[in-house]
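Methods — Computational structure assignment.
A single polypeptide chain was analysed. Its primary sequence is given first, followed by the predicted tertiary structure written as structure tokens.
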Amino acid sequence: MNRAATGPPGSPALSEPKLGEIIRDFKAVSTRAIRTGGDAPFAWQTDYHDRIVRTQRELTAIRAYVADNPRRWADETFNAAATPTPSPSRPGDRG
């Protein structure tokens, strides 16, 4: 993402990139690198979740969630190799 001013001196400065632009560029660069490495079927999920982290407690919880993601991948519904986990029966279900 190149945001260097290209106009004459005194021209208005370009605005800072928006979060969506940063994410889009990150995904594009990453996708090219991954596919060049031979993982052609790679694709991103269509959306992302952004959130303002307001406290140290929230930051600690988010870091733990991210660090634990690789372990949870085996059970992830987006993982084609995942083994489905049966859902517990609900009261009133028959069968």
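Note: Residues 19-75 form one domain.
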